[in-house]
Amino acid sequence: MTAPASPAAGSDHRWLALIVLCLGVLMIVLDTTIVNVALPSIQTDLHFTQTSLAWVVNAYMLTFGGFLLLGGRLGDLYGHRRLFLLGIGFFTLASLACGLAHNQEALIWARAFQGLAAAVVTAVALSLIMDLFSEPADRAKAMGVYGFVCAGGGSLGALLGGVLTSTLSWHWIFLVNLPIGVVVIALSLRLLSKTLNQHPSRDLDVAGALSVTASLMLAVYAIVNGNEMGWTSLRTVAQLLIAVGLLLAFLIIETRVKAPLMPLRLFRLRNLAIANIIGVLWAAAMFAWFFLSALYMQLVLGYTPLEVGLAFLPANLIMAVFSLGISARLVMRFGIRLPLAVGLALATLGLLLFSQAPVDGHFLPNILPGMLLLGLGAGIAFNPLLLAAMNDVAPSESGLASGVVNTAFMMGGALGLAALASLAAARTESHLAAGLPALSALNDGYQGAFLVGAVFAALGASLAAVMMRNKSGESLGGAEA
Fold first, then answer.
1. How far is CA 464 from CA 205, 350, 376, 386, in A?
2. pLDDT digits 0-9 by tens, 386-443
3. Where is this chain's protein located in or outside the cell (predicted)?
């Protein structure tokens, strides 16, 4: 694969462009978690019920998960740079609408528009990075930076959400995006060449786009409402069955149209297919770690929101050290398979430690070791997983591959979190019925969910070790012939 014909691609401006792209992605990653700390304040201010409050999060997840694949394909067809700029601009305006919202409906609709813009930005940002960096060593380093932003941004969101909510108000968790968005747009116009990954084709598979987007959105809707409606309720089962039917219709459409939205031949690429399965399992485990450990620290140990954010800092620091340099060197030295398997194995150990956290736990013996292992595992594994998903595809389909792997992450995270939260709640209710004290029952529920999360991570590690085709440093530069 040759380097893109652009001034930025052939100079040190590439690294400045990478910082700008990662800053845009950081806005998206932060907004998936920053709102959680502020939910109690939002509920009081806008008079949400406990049920309706969930839609402040669910509206974002619904459109984010539903439009990732379509966003990636639109980037391939109409230009990654153009879609990135549109996505950041739309996300910034949606953030302004969130920050100015003074009723429930306005906030929920603005969050939905945020999720739509986030899907577009997330799907094309990775493709732009692949366009900018064609040399194996530089690409591995760039992917390490991107991996750090994705893996560590969620934890940073909890800390930033606690600071902004406690010192200013919940409105500022959204308004803080405005200056960042303006800076990202201005620098992108300067640093990202218009010639980056432009393609002459304008064919868009409308039927495929409608069917797969409707399928993903309906699946996410059913998943995020499963706890409330009941996983075996007629409504939930019907929604999931319709989503499966739409997905089957999408697969049939893709075999018959001239320019399919998602060429099924991509899944003949072994590493891409395995990377997506691992992405689903790992996202389920990581979402469980982040959200359930935050609940454990707040509801069982009595931490404040700011203390919860600070507790995640060790994991962030470990991710920084490994994602920004060491992980890239590990990939260049050992290929993809070994670092990915080892990283997921370390994450498994971290979740196993959390599954043993006691009701009277303390930070140093019961929280810090698991945080360090999970931060280390994420820092090592994220880079090789993204490379495994992206390296076998042609440049013209990098946006599509990015959309596929990000969709796998989103769907895996949503399904895994919903399932593990249901498991924790059911286990807690069972212990309460047996007469166990409330805190002990709650803690046992979290322990069970952490244990299942560890199983997910262990399955991912096993798949990486057994099924992933290893890549030597010489083959990390791009698509294979």
1. 33, 18, 17, 13
2. 778 777 777 666 666 766 777 777 777 767 776 787 788 778 888 888 888 888 998 9
3. Cell membrane
- Which residues of the chain, if any, have pLDDT below 50? 1-10, 472-481
Type of residue numbered 288: A
Q: Which two three-digit tokens encode residue 197? A: 């990954």
* pLDDT tens digits, 188-199: 888 777 665 555
User: Residue ranges per domain, the chain?
Assistant: 8-204+261-475
Give me the residue label for tokens 């395995």. Answer: 274
Question: Do 37 and 162 touch, CB atoms closer than 8 A?
Answer: yes
Q: Which CATH superfamily is domain 8-204+261-475 in?
A: MFS general substrate transporter like domains (1.20.1250.20)
In this structure, the dihedral spanned by the alpha carbons of residues 117, 293, 450 and 436, taken in order and rounded to 10 degrees, is -130
Residue listed under structure tokens 């402040």:
56
Per the CB < 8 A criterion, the answer to whether 416 and 351 are in contact is no
Distance of CA 284 to the CA centre of its chain: 10
Tokens of residue 87, six digits: 């996505």
- The two tokens of residue 180 are 């960042």
* Opening angle at CA 271, ends 267 and 272, nearest 5: 45
CA–CA separation, 215 vs 242, rounded Å? 8
